[in-house]
């Protein structure tokens, strides 16, 4: 498995820890900045890292706490600022040249929202390649058609042949919708990629969300060719109901206007949405996603491929036949389920080391120099094995451990402990929606 350099969730924890410290030391401005920043990273982590709903929920509830505190700090700082004669204005004028300051007066809101957006929107390149996504060939083709080709061969898309402006990815949870979007972000490196999750936009501390939507599109037009990826778009644009809040309605209306409104030229701007409850989408919004791609549960070959992908470079003793069999045995598992199975299996050797009561000496490559073979490595074994020495991992010197490699039986054990998360009813509904409104990915 590949390791990411700094995981957003760790970064988030680091930031909020700093925030609480600064908060305690009464450095409220810095604290506020850290809280907000930390929450952004948490939101990112929810989207791309946390796999279980439980983890997501606990992160969410933490975020609410931090946002509450941030809101209080913000109000406090505002009051304080009001009393002091010197404020922001002085700061920004020595940053900008004189001619800029005139249009700053014109539209201070725009500046404010753009900076908020820049913080809230993740623009970094996530480094997921097309090959990292197993299966989903049709979806990949459609996305290439919509994203790569128009930028590379603009002349192909003149006149009546227009690239897609809105693409909706829908399907059961954990089938790689967000993951696919990351691949788009990586591969479409000529385009600016904005990713917002609905929770960013609806977040209460940002308040005036509809202006945010407006500025999001404004920025996307300025930086075109660009892609706006809205994850969990259903939260933003669910069908109109009587009890929806005023602000939710305004966001949606703004969204409709921006995506296809009078006077808004969206050439070069692609809106990519993802949802796992597509039927909750407002029909007007649905219409604006011209192409709707069903991302189904993976088939057996794609599942095998995923086992392969997730194993990565970790040493293992699985044969091609084993991998194929695992693919066959995992009917109904989503990509996310499979990644959990593999992660669990990858932990088995660690557990074996932890639980072992006996070790034996074996020959293997030295830690310092893999070309040199040594005879004094220790590996877990059963008490009855020849040469078994009664000891635990605590007695094993750090450089002498030879851990067992991942085997098919580890995989099967993890498989029996992990059940698929998607139920039949949801699948039926999704399939029905796909039949009515979508194309298969
Ligand atoms: N086709 C795939 N190829 C490789 N990995 C996959 C694939 N589908 C899912 N995964 C794995 O599952 C994880 C979760 O996928 P992802 O977050 O994209 O699901 P999702 O479809 O966006 O789900 P949700 O609807 O709940 O947001 C990914 O990080 C990836 O490791
Ligand atoms: Mg997702």
From TrEMBL:
GO terms for cellular component: late endosome membrane. It is a peripheral membrane protein. It is found in: Late endosome membrane. Residues 78-118 are annotated as: Disordered. It comes from the Eukaryota. Gene3D superfamilies: 1.10.8.60, P-loop containing nucleotide triphosphate hydrolases, Phosphotransferase system, lactose/cellobiose-type IIA subunit. Residues 5-83 form the MIT domain. Residues 163-299 form the AAA+ ATPase domain. It is an enzyme of class 3 (hydrolase). This is vesicle-fusing ATPase. It comes from Elysia chlorotica. The lineage of its organism: Eukaryota, Metazoa, Spiralia, Lophotrochozoa, Mollusca.
């Amino acid at each position: 498995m590949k390791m990411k350099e700094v995981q957003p969730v760790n970064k988030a924890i680091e930031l909020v820890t700093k925030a609480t410290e600064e908060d305690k030391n009464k450095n409220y401005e810095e604290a506020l900045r850290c809280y907000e920043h930390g929450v952004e990273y948490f939101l990112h982590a929810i989207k791309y890292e946390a796999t279980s709903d439980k983890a997501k929920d606990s992160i969410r509830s933490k975020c609410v706490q931090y946002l509450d505190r941030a809101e209080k700090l913000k109000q406090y700082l505002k009051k304080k600022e009001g009393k002091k004669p010197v404020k922001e204005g002085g700061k920004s004028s020595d940053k900008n040249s004189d001619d800029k300051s005139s249009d700053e007066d014109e539209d201070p809101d725009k500046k404010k929202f753009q900076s908020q957006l820049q913080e809230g929107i993740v623009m970094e390149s996530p480094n997921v390649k097309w090959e990292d996504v197993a299966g989903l060939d049709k979806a990949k083709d459609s996305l290439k058609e919509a994203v790569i080709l128009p930028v590379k061969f603009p002349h192909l898309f003149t006149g009546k042949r227009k690239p897609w402006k809105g693409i909706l990815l829908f399907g059961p949870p954990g089938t790689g919708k967000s993951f696919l979007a990351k691949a788009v972000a990586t591969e479409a490196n000529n385009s600016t990629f904005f990713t917002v999750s609905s929770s960013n936009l609806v977040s209460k501390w940002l308040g005036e969300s509809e202006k945010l939507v407006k500025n999001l599109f404004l920025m996307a037009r300025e930086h075109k060719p660009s892609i706006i990826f809205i994850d969990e778009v259903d939260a933003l644009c669910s069908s109109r109901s009587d009890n929806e809040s005023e602000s939710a309605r305004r966001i949606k209306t703004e969204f409709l206007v921006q995506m296809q409104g009078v006077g808004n030229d969206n050439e070069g701007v692609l809106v990519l949405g993802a949802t796992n409850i597509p039927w909750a989408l407002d029909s007007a919004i649905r219409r604006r996603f011209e192409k709707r791609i069903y991302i189904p549960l993976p088939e057996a070959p794609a599942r095998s491929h995923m086992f392969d992908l997730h194993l990565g470079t970790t040493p293992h003793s699985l044969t091609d036949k084993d991998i194929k069999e695992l693919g066959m045995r995992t009917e109904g598992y989503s990509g996310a389920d499979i990644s959990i199975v593999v992660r669990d299996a990858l932990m088995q050797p660690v557990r074996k080391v932890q639980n072992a009561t006996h070790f034996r000496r074996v020959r293997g490559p030295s830690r310092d120099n893999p070309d040199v073979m040594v005879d004094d490595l220790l590996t877990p074994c059963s008490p009855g094995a020849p040469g078994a020495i009664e000891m635990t991992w605590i007695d094993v010197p750090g450089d002498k451990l030879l851990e067992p490699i991942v085997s098919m039986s580890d995989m099967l054990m993890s498989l029996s402990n992990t059940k698929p998360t998607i139920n039949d009813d949801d699948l039926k509904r999704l399939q029905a929606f796909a039949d009515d409104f979508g194309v298969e990915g």
